[in-house]
Each structure stands twice: as C-alpha cells, then as structure tokens.
Amino acid sequence: MRFTKMQGIGNDFILVDGFTREIPDPKALAVRLCDRHFGVGADGLILALPSPVADARMRILNSDGSEAEMCGNGLRCLGKFLYDSGLCRKSPMRVQTLAGILTLTLDAGPDDMAQRVTVDMGAPTFDPGKIPVAADSNAISLEAAGHRLRFFCVGMGNPHAVTFDLYPDDAAFAALGPVFERHPVFPRRCNIEFCRVEGANARVRVWERGDGPTLGCGTGACAVLAAGVRQGLLPRRAQIMLPGGTLSIHWDEASDHLFMTGPAETVFTGDTEQ
C-alpha cells in the first residue's frame, strides 16, 4: 500500500489514496502505522476518499484509532495531497468532513505544487450542547493537579476548551492535559488549549484529544482566536504561535467564518503492508 507522510507546522499525518483502493480496517491501520517506534509515525491517518456531494471526503483517525470530526492541519495536508497527486486540481476545493463541507483555497508555487492553503473553517459555536459540554454555559471552571483554571469552550466541528489562565511548563502540561481531556464535563472528551497573549497574538500549547501533546492544531488555533476575541483579549486577525509553527487566523465579522492559513509539506512517500 502506497502512503504519503505529510506535515503542517509539525502536526504530521499519513495519507492514503482511498479513491483507488479499499481500506478494510482503517482504525487498526491507524494504530499500527502511527506508532512512532514500530510504524511510520504520525499524529493521525487521513484517508482521501471520493464524495457524492463534494470534490473529496476526508476521514481522519487519531493515533489511538479514534475518529475525529475534522482537523485543520490535516485538511491543509489533504488539500495539497489531492492537488499535487492530480486527484483534484481545483482551487477552491470542497472537502466533505464529519464537521460538514469545508472550502480550501490553494496557492501553487512555480512548480505548480500547492504551497500554502487557506481553509474556510466555518463559524464557531459557543452553545454548550453543541460543543458538547455538560454544563449550562460554555465558560466553566475546572480543577486538577492543584490548579483551578477557567476555560472558554468552543466548537469548531470538534470540541475545544481554551484557557488563558496558564501557559504551563512541561511537567504541568503533562499532568493537566490528560485529566482535562477526559474530564466528565466533556462527554466526547476535548482538545485542551493553554494560552498566553503576546501583544496582538497568542502562544499556545495543545493537548489533543486522542493524541496528547501536538506541535500544531488548526481547529485549536481557530478556537483560541474565537475565545480570545469573545473575552476581549485578541483582535479578529492574529498570529497563533504553536510549538511547530505559526498559523494566521482571521475571524471575518460579516460571514462569522474563521479562515486559517498555513503551510502543508510532503515529507516522504513509501510502501507498507496493508
């Protein structure tokens, strides 16, 4: 089975062409291939699939085999994969996800290969029932490992809990991340963003649902901007700085949609047993 290893600001994925082959057990395949010691190594497995309602469909499975609704960095990588491979040479490009159909705009370089991708991430939701959060409000306070933190929860097709109360060191990050991810208030678990405002921008560490520490998270960057704007901490256009790199996020007031721009790179291609 042919695969392509890709990354967007350090958030890395294994992409497989599901247009031309059947993938019988993608969850088991994700666990095997994403293992960083005994497999290829990645944060997730992305299947590029045909869609009856869009140009392509994305399935993304985390390294633990759980399926995510969508992933911003993964979506940029999928757009480049589809464009560069010739499976879909469109810009804009419409991709079906479990979070709905999202539109990508691709900027090609002199070699006619996609370099930067802008994704229309849609409108954020603050309704606790839709995120989902088992609380009356999306603004909640949680305690773990001696820290009580205020979280502003945002739905970006997947659940996020954003705090500006703490930008943790490694020990605190490792202790707090898994506890908050699996807190009972989050019925489908949650992606956790620890943030620090720096001027008009924000620096962020993300504990990703199903993956743990991650170098980058596109939906998380969008959730941070939305939470920051709602709390009067950030402007509607900002640079969100993650460990693996920076994403440009713009929350358009007229459409209420968030737009995420960042790189997508092919690391290598290879073959493995299915």
Overview of the structural elements:
The model has no long low-confidence stretch (mean pLDDT 96). This protein has an 18-stranded mixed β-sheet that branches. It folds into 2 domains: 2-120 and 261-271, Diaminopimelate Epimerase, Chain A, domain 1; 139-256, Diaminopimelate Epimerase, Chain A, domain 1, CATH 3.10.310.10. By secondary structure, the chain is of the alpha+beta class. It starts with a strand and ends with a strand. Helix content is 18%, strand content 43%.
Layout of strands and helices, then pairs:
Layout: E1 2-8, E2 11-17, H1 26-34, E3 44-49, E4 56-62, E5 67-68, H2 72-85, E6 93-97, E7 100-108, E8 114-122, E9 139-144, E10 147-155, E11 159-163, H3 170-181, E12 191-198, E13 201-208, E14 212-214, H4 218-230, E15 237-242, E16 245-251, E17 258-263, E18 265-271
Parallel strand pairs: 2-3, 4-6, 11-12, 13-15
Antiparallel strand pairs: 1-2, 1-18, 3-4, 4-5, 6-7, 7-8, 8-17, 9-10, 10-11, 12-13, 13-14, 15-16, 16-17
